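RECORD TYPE: inverse folding
INPUT: structure tokens
STRUCTURE:
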């Protein structure tokens, strides 16, 4: 196969029907299936339903090295495999008990997990050998996590290795998958005649529907289900939930079990308990779309006037998730609702803190002063609380850490450092060692970042070493320490930290990008280009990576690839001066100097001090015969970079062409001081000296 396939069915399809319908409806036979058709319906196993099914099928028999490399992704998407992994890599974040969870995964974590599974699948197929294969997936009612994984799989996989066949029921799958399918797959409508009647009575048909976890809405089964009395349906759901629970597979608790408990005989008891377990797991794992869904479902079963505490828990896990998904206004609306329903000081304290974080971190237009006021409000409420001891101490330290973030955003780094340092010391002095390990590490990490910003690099490195010793499997710490080491010129150590971060976690484009920049600084261009290729495989829209790769292609004379990277980047960031500069330089290399001048103009409109654009526009102006314009640009360039030998040399050539020998000589003397071994500069200097002496 040369392309992946997007199969559009006109009706709901049972996965069992897929092999026959595809065999009859596709223009060519599919390669051998890597696994049986997958169903991504989130009612089955919630987040990563299809991804986890694929992982559970491929992981057995995989090499120990492959499993170790991808264990975070494998255990996150298929926790049933935990028994097969000898020493899972835990972090303080993954180990924190709910009461001590103060750090949550970023909103892109699931995307990173999906990329890791893609790389696992590619490597596992190479281990298996045996030629091309196919993977058929039904995507009706899929969770966002499965859509992310399938989007990455389709975009990054050679159809000659694995042909991905995405099947829907006539509606676009949505999320990130639809656009990827339009670009990388052939859309094929496949007819599907109505399924033959099953011949089952209502109870048997409804049982079949429930035992399929209500994932396939075949009209006959759904109609039979709704004809049964409500109490009979509820008993079917109870029986199915009991069977799944007895099976002990954790992911059923994220999909089918809460579904059946909600529809069973005790929705406000067993149903809420199942939803509570599911939402806790999902918010802790960073499965934020599912968390929002479970929150809505939990709230629908509760009356806030009667069960405000439970309603608050479901609501605030929703707000956490909405903020991680960059949906700040929705989160703030929920807090408006919450504080209007209660006069409890603790609730108002927590809401004030959360709203402060919205204003200082999450809103598009941030208001740090308002955030500071809200933090102070939270601190004031905390002083009204009667309970003393560890909880009160931790609450105060937690709020001070938030206030430190606001102070940093307001520019008072010393005050931010004082608050963080004081908070860490207070915890160490008053709370038993071993408790709140996660937040202690957060405080040390924040202190390290503030010290680095203040230029106290030795102390910052000590703090980074301390937090890494406490939390050695958390990749972000290595990235931050690597960044500081790079600024200090300790590039070998920085590179080692970046490599460790990449090894410990699922694919992380930012870590790879930092590594590529360091390699460029070390003039290891081939290695840097390979890393940038990988970065853009993970995230095709990372503009900075496009800029750097375009520059490498330009330096190597590959104008086609340089222009392609620049144009892709400009489609995302139309005002990016560096990308306009690349386009201009490509046009200049093609001797299209009028078009190049217009592109240089666009670069300089975005960044009037962009040296390369001034020099390039001067060169094009010279080629077009407009030497006054060229000289004006080079005068500006010299003012910006008076010691740059290339700028001085170019201006000297203009002066030389106009027989302004003294001016040319002055520029060449400066150029020769900075580049004494440049033969072009030396030769021009000799010419000018000869001319001046005539």
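DESIGNED SEQUENCE:
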């Amino acid at each position: 196969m040369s392309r992946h396939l997007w199969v559009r069915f006109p009706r709901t399809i049972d996965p069992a029907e897929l092999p026959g319908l595809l065999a009859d409806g596709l223009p060519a036979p599919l390669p051998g299936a890597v696994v049986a058709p997958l169903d991504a319906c989130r009612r089955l196993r919630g987040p990563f339903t299809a991804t986890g099914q694929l992982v559970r099928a491929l992981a057995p028999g995989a090499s120990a090295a492959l499993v170790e490399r991808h264990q975070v992704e494998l255990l996150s998407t298929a926790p049933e495999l935990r028994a097969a992994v000898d020493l899972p890599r835990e972090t303080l974040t993954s180990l924190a008990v709910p009461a001590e969870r103060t750090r949550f995964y970023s909103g892109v974590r699931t995307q990173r997990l999906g990329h890791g599974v893609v790389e696992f699948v590619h490597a596992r197929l190479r281990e298996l050998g045996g030629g091309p294969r196919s993977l058929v997936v039904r995507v009706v009612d899929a969770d966002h996590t499965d859509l992310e994984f399938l989007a990455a799989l389709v975009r990054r996989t050679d159809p000659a290795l694995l042909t991905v066949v995405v099947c829907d029921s006539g509606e676009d799958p949505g999320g990130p998958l639809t656009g990827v399918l339009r670009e990388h797959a052939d859309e094929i409508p496949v007819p599907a005649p109505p399924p033959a009647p099953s011949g089952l009575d209502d109870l048997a048909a409804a049982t079949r529907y429930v035992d399929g976890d209500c994932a396939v809405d075949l009209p006959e089964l759904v109609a039979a289900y709704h004809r049964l009395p409500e109490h009979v349906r509820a008993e079917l759901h109870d029986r199915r939930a009991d069977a799944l629970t007895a099976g002990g597979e954790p992911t059923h608790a994220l999909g089918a079990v809460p579904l059946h408990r909600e529809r069973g005989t005790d929705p406000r008891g067993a149903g809420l308990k199942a939803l509570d377990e599911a939402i806790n797991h999902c918010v802790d794992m960073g499965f934020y779309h599912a968390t929002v869904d479970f929150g809505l479902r939990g709230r629908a079963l509760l009356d806030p006037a009667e069960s405000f505490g439970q309603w608050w828990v479901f609501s605030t896990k929703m707000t956490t998730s909405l903020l991680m998904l960059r949906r700040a206004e929705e989160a703030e609306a929920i807090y408006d609702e919450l504080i209007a329903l209660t006069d409890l000081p603790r609730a108002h304290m927590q809401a004030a803190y959360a709203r402060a974080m919205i204003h200082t971190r999450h809103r598009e237009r941030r208001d740090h002063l308002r955030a500071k006021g809200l933090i102070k409000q939270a601190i004031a409420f905390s002083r009204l609380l009667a309970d003393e001891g560890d909880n009160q101490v931790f609450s105060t330290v937690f709020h001070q850490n938030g206030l430190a973030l606001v102070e940093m955003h307001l520019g008072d780094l010393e005050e931010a450092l004082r608050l963080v340092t004081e908070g860490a010391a207070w915890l160490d002095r008053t709370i038993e060692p071993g408790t709140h390990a996660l937040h202690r590490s957060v405080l040390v990490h924040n202190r390290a970042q503030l010290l680095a910003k203040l230029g106290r690099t030795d102390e910052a490195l000590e703090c980074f070493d301390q937090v890494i010793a406490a939390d050695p499997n958390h990749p972000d710490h290595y990235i931050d320490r690597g960044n500081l080491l790079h600024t200090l010129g300790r590039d070998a150590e920085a590179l080692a930290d970046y490599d460790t971060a990449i090894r410990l976690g699922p694919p992380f484009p930012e870590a790879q990008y930092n590594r590529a920049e360091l390699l460029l600084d070390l003039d290891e261009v081939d290695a840097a280009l390979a890393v940038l290729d990988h970065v853009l495989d993970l995230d095709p829209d990372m503009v900075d990576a496009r800029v750097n790769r375009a520059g490498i292609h330009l330096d190597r004379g590959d104008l086609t690839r340089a222009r392609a990277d620049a144009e892709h980047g400009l489609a995302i960031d139309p005002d990016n001066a560096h990308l306009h500069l690349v386009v201009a330089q490509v046009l200049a290399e093609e001797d299209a100097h009028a078009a190049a001048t217009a592109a240089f103009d666009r670069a300089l409109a975005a960044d009037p001090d962009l040296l390369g654009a001034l020099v390039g526009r001067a060169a094009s102006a010279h080629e077009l015969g407009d030497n006054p314009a060229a000289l004006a640009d080079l005068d500006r360039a010299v003012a910006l970079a008076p010691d740059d030998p290339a700028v001085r040399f170019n201006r000297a050539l203009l002066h030389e062409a106009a027989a302004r020998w003294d001016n040319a000589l002055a520029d060449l003397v400066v150029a020769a001081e900075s580049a004494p071994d440049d033969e072009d500069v030396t030769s021009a200097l000799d010419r000018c000296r000869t001319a001046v002496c005539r």
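NOTES: The radius of gyration is 31 Å.
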